[in-house]
Amino acid sequence: MTTHRESKEIIHQSKTKLVPKEIKNLISGGFAGMVAKTFVAPIDRIKILYQVTSTPFRLRDVPNVAMKIVKEEGLSALWKGNTATLIRVFPYAGIQFMVFNKVKYIFVDKHEREHDVSTEPNSEQKSIIRRNTYEKDRKFGLTPVESLISGSTAGAISVLMTYPLDLTRAQLAVLKKKKGPNDGFVKVLMSNYHNGGTNGLFRGITPTLLGMLPYSGVAFAINEQSKRYILDRHRRDPTVYEKMVCGGLSGLFAQSMTYPFEVTRRRMQTVGVLSQAKDTSINVLGGSVETKVAQDAAKIAEQHIVQEEHLRKSPSMLKVMKQVIKEQGVGGLFKGLSMNWLKGPVSFAISFTTFDLIKEFIEDLEAKELNMTISISVNMYNN
């Protein structure tokens, strides 16, 4: 017969085996980002090709551009650079969701203490993580400002920790898929570092951060507050469909507000690559690729993707923005936005919903295991 102390020890040991919530958020967020990015990769690649050139964008031309890429480079070329994207997006999305939820529950715990509600569960079953977090979410959700702060913090930290991967991915997306050996992810990444040091790995970080702070803040805030609205209005958790709608709306608004920074970032990231037009896919657009930025790069770049001299003379964010406006007008800073209105909501809807589903799946497994342990322990104690 098992003693009461032994039963409690068995339950305690089972609870210590639960996956820390930070790791669950990291894993769930990482896989959610990978699923979403793979789904929209073809749209993303075509969008980048337009962003880094002066070719006028028309949404009706996109299918023809896609078919031309497939004809010249093969179907897999639509996913050119996607491996680099996945390498980047797992830590990026994972860190983003992990940090957001960490900051979120700092606010939630603060609200809980202010309301003088005990943090201790009422029973062994209520100690299950999912139940605790759901109860906290129901009672002490974030305010809009807190959602904005949590999202902005998550976006900034995730960008700083993974930016060299994003730079490499953008360069690979512009490069043409060859029949022979292609410039691989590691080769391009090491070339950036070898020729430019730390500065070479973080070229374009300024517009990225300036865009990411409101972008991530608004996206997470709208998603969080939309789900909170459904919870308060209908007294139930959002359905999968409602979560997808919330995620889609958040992506639509966030990307529209910060799109000029994305265009600027892509120009700065790929300026060295554009100097070698024959090695890129930009000819499929059918327009001029000789932007002023590309012309400057061509004068100082030689045969490789990134050159040391070029990196030292890399144009500033303001210079790139002014040049885009000079070439194409203010509308140039929003070129490809209509593609983002298609891609963004889909990507965010998939990402936020997949995150919730994977996290719930992990927590359901933990709940079943813990409940089984409690049941076995109770039976052993009674016998």
From TrEMBL:
Principal localization reads membrane
One annotated Gene Ontology cellular component of this protein: membrane
Its record classes its membrane topology as: Multi-pass membrane protein
Q: Which Gene Ontology BP terms does the record give? A: transmembrane transport
Q: Which InterPro entries match?
A: MCP, MCP_dom_sf, MCP_transmembrane
Q: Name one Pfam family in it.
A: Mito_carr
Q: Which PROSITE patterns match?
A: SOLCAR (PS50920)
Cellular location of this protein? Answer: Membrane
> Which keywords appear in this protein's UniProt record, sorted alphabetically?
Membrane, Repeat, Transmembrane, Transport
Q: Where are the Solcar repeats?
A: 20-106, 142-229, 238-361
Its family? Belongs to the mitochondrial carrier (TC 2.A.29) family.
Which protein is depicted? Mitochondrial carrier
